[in-house]
Design brief:
Strand content: 25-35%
Structural class: mainly beta
Helix content: 10-25%
Radius of gyration: 30 Å
Shape: globular
Number of helices: 7
Distance between the termini: 35 Å
Number of strands: 27
Largest sheet: 5 strands, mixed
């Protein structure tokens, strides 16, 4: 059990004079340390009573096997398409990707979890991390599980989906993917209610083995999907196969690891002299960055944000993994095409101009303050070329290759993460004796009214029974963050409570606690303080 002392214990920082409401520090009493909320096994076991046999010692810890160390890694997938079929009449299709996952030989019970911890190539792009295991509760017919869908790309038949999708890749297992591309027509989120554009079946091993060039394939226009994935029954007026005109639709899936994305190309662009595209004499420009390899294969790698109502747009501090732009190094023969487009609310976007360069050319242009001419190739042919003088210039204001630090780099350099807890004590959370209160303590069921003091010998019982929402939050967050704090002393505040001096809407200081258990004890004492009542209405 923890106790509150009026003065700090040895080695703990003293409370400041401004800490007035409760003051002290929760410090461990003399003697053996109290139990901690930990997932680590205990190193020492108590001796058995005399006359009983001691349990067998635990097996010695084994070093991680080569399979767990090298054959399992996280891969990041980026998806782009080209030459999609236009299913709209007054504008272009709004493509969206639905991704399904199948783990051959594994249980059909899978666990899906979303996260935003993976860095993105766009500042406004979302990231999705998928963890699929055998201990979840989502049962999937045919072994296929719906993984994630991307955000739709408006009016674009050559979309670059901004999401970065992270899978755990197992070298020794077969992991299949089915990527379905649809034209988003409503906000229902149901794939079969959209217009089908194509799909591809591929294993994660094929995508990884494609290397830096990416996995490139034709999109199947047969809307009959693998068993276990919802099907488009009456798609295209009962036609099973989607008819396309011109070049066939293609999809490119590029796989990389987190380590591959450490080196980033950071650059800033600005343009002048762009052509007028809108009725107001201005434009809404954005640019698409495309990599063209030595064989002539093109892959979209970046799409910028749109600048509204300007002919002199500026894009600052853009970051793209260098691996996407120059897989074989800065001196490789891969070209970069910077294409500018005018965004339109209705109809398709208007092409403005483009410039070709390389990563080395961008670095040289930034060093010499040189400009790149923007050319519209359609105006360099026939009679138009006699009067054509270009479509403006693009200036590389800054460009550099930097090593992006990772989280472990900050931890290794000595960075620490502090934790401060603030408790909402407004009346909307209800008093702790109420069964539906977020501050509910089971031992308070028989009490009524705002005065909820407990005897001191019942303080430890507050953390021994079922946990309320605040206790679970303190444990869930505190167990993780306390490992990155050396002193493990955390402050606690409260707001929205009422005391004899009046209502406090600002955060009042309750005290400092040592470790997660100390936070739980301090939270219990604060909520059950007989002088404290919840303020309202809220």
């Amino acid at each position: 059990m923890w106790r509150r002392t009026p003065s700090p214990s040895a080695g703990a920082p003293a409370a400041s004079a401004a800490d007035s409401t409760f003051g002290g520090i929760y410090a461990p009493p003399p003697g053996p340390p109290p139990p901690q909320y930990s997932l680590m096994p205990q190193q020492q076991q108590p001796l058995p009573p005399q006359g009983e046999l001691a349990p067998p010692p635990p097996p010695p810890a084994q070093a991680p096997s080569i399979e767990s160390a090298t054959l399992r890694t996280k891969v990041q997938l980026r998806i782009s398409c080209a030459n999609l079929v236009n299913r709209d009449y007054l504008s272009k299709s709004d493509p969206q990707a639905y991704i399904y996952y199948q783990h051959v030989g594994a249980s059909t019970h899978m666990r899906l979890r979303r996260s935003e911890s993976v860095s993105s190539i766009r500042s406004d792009a979302s990231s999705v991390e998928l963890r699929l295991g055998a201990d979840g509760s989502h049962e999937v017919a045919g072994g296929w599980a719906f993984a994630v869908r991307t955000e739709p790309v408006k009016n674009d038949l050559n979309p670059v989906f901004p999401e970065i999708i992270t899978f755990e890749y197992y070298f020794e297992e077969v992991q299949n993917l089915c990527v379905v591309i649809v034209d988003r027509d409503n906000n229902s989120g149901v794939m079969t209610e959209q217009h089908y554009l194509g799909h591809v079946n591929v294993s994660l091993g094929q995508v990884v083995s494609a290397g830096s060039r990416g996995y490139n394939s034709l999109l199947s226009t047969d809307c009959r999907l693998p068993r276990g994935i919802p099907s488009f029954h009456n798609e295209n007026h009962q036609a099973r196969v989607l008819r396309s005109e011109g070049q066939p639709s293609r999809i490119t899936i590029l796989a990389s690891t987190e380590a591959d994305n450490r080196r980033q190309l950071v650059f800033s662009f600005s343009c002048t002299g762009l052509p007028r595209k809108d009725a107001n004499g201005l434009a809404d420009p954005y640019f698409i960055l495309t990599r063209i390899d030595r064989a002539g294969n093109a892959m979209h790698v970046y799409r910028s944000s749109m600048q509204r109502r300007t002919l002199e747009p500026v894009w600052r501090d853009l970051r793209v993994p260098l691996r996407l732009l120059a897989p074989d190094g800065v001196g490789s023969g891969d070209r970069l095409r910077i294409s500018l487009w005018d965004w339109d609310l209705t109809g398709g976007d208007d092409y403005m101009a483009s410039a070709d360069t390389t990563v080395g050319g961008l670095l040289a242009s930034a060093a010499t303050r040189a400009t790149l001419p923007l050319i519209d190739a359609s105006r360099t042919r026939g009679v138009k070329k006699l009067f054509y003088r270009g479509s403006g210039v693009l200036r590389v204001d800054a460009c550099a290759i930097v090593d992006e630090p990772q989280f472990l780099d900050f931890v290794a350099a000595g960075a620490q993460i502090d934790l401060a807890v603030a408790i909402d004590l407004t009346a909307s959370n209800q008093y702790p004796h109420h069964p539906t209160s977020l501050h509910h303590f089971p031992e308070l069921l028989g009490l009524r009214g705002p005065t909820l003091g407990l005897p001191a010998n019942q303080a430890s019982a507050a953390t021994a029974g079922p946990m309320n929402e605040y206790q679970r939050a303190i444990i869930g967050v505190g167990q993780i963050l306390q490992e990155y704090d050396t002193d493990k002393i955390f402050p606690m505040y409260g707001f929205g409570y009422e005391k004899p001096r009046g209502v406090r809407h600002r955060c009042g200081f309750f005290g400092r606690a040592f470790g997660v258990q100390g936070l739980l004890e301090l939270y219990h004492d604060c909520v059950c303080d007989p002088l404290l009542s919840l303020s309202g209405p809220t």
